[in-house]
Specification:
The protein is of the alpha/beta class and 220 residues long. The chain has nine helices and seven strands. It folds into two domains: 127 residues, Rossmann fold; 83 residues. The strands form two sheets. The chain has a five-stranded parallel β-sheet, sandwiched between helices. Strands 1-7 form a two-stranded antiparallel sheet. Helix 1 runs antiparallel to helix 4. The longest helix is centred in the first third of the chain and has 19 residues. The protein binds magnesium ion. Magnesium ion binds next to loops.
Length: 220
């Protein structure tokens, strides 16, 4: 996956709402590496179960979690996915291994994270012009905070608003409104940048926020 961060004219812009995943760095390579590491750990723990079956169980657990928790940060919880996967293959909750797999997933994921050069240049431009930035991002707070530390961008980000904090995911107005209130700005003063047309672009535009799409292309 390759990210194409847009060219943005900051004239008159008083604040920025910014997506994180697939906006400042490409998600796919991180997820692929993280999942492979976890499946490999699971094949060591359960050699009698094939890798294909484990992948299938992961996918099943992920989809069930999405159905149950649709629209909330927990719907992306790797802890819940691995816990459900382990319950399915062993018939009971495996506390220690669930936690171990969650940590293994995120530490492997973060090893692969690479800040997009154009996104960094944009963050620097905002900093130079004293334009404040709030992330508006769908996932749990702890993971998103770890990601911005790993990317080395905490100095550029004034606020982080996660769907865990807002209680609901994009495109709901509430998550954008929380970010606007932290920035102390009106919708017409800020812009939104993100890769997801429905969540980022249409969600922000519904509140009257001018939006810029990030394009994600499959790398060859
Ligand atoms: Mg995104």
């Amino acid at each position: 996956m390759v990210i194409i961060f847009p060219d943005i004219d900051l004239t008159g812009v008083k604040g920025v709402l910014l997506d994180l995943d697939n906006c400042l760095y490409p998600y796919d390579i991180c997820h692929a590496q993280a999942l492979e590491t976890c499946i490999s750990k699971l094949t060591q723990e359960f050699p009698q179960i094939s890798e294909d079956k484990l992948m299938e169980e992961y996918d099943k657990s992920r989809k069930a979690c999405h159905r149950q928790l649709d629209g909330t940060a927990s719907s992306h919880s790797r802890l819940l996915y691995f816990k459900a996967l382990l319950e399915s293959i062993t018939g009971k909750t495996q506390a220690a291994l669930s936690l171990e797999l969650e940590e293994l997933y995120w530490s492997s994921y973060m090893e692969q994270m690479q800040l997009d050069a154009k996104a960094l240049a944009f963050l620097q431009k905002c900093k130079n012009k004293s334009i404040p930035i709030s992330l508006v991002t769908d996932l749990t707070e702890q993971i998103q905070l770890r990601k911005i530390i790993k990317l080395g961008i905490t100095d550029y980000i004034d606020f982080v608003v996660s769907s865990e904090e807002a209680g609901i995911e994009k495109p709901a107005a509430k998550i954008f409104e929380l970010a606007l209130s932290k920035l102390g700005k009106k919708a017409s003063d800020v812009i939104m940048i993100g890769d997801n047309l429905k969540k980022d672009i249409k969600g922000a535009e519904a509140l009257g926020v001018k939006s810029y799409p990030v394009t994600c292309l499959e790398s060859k």
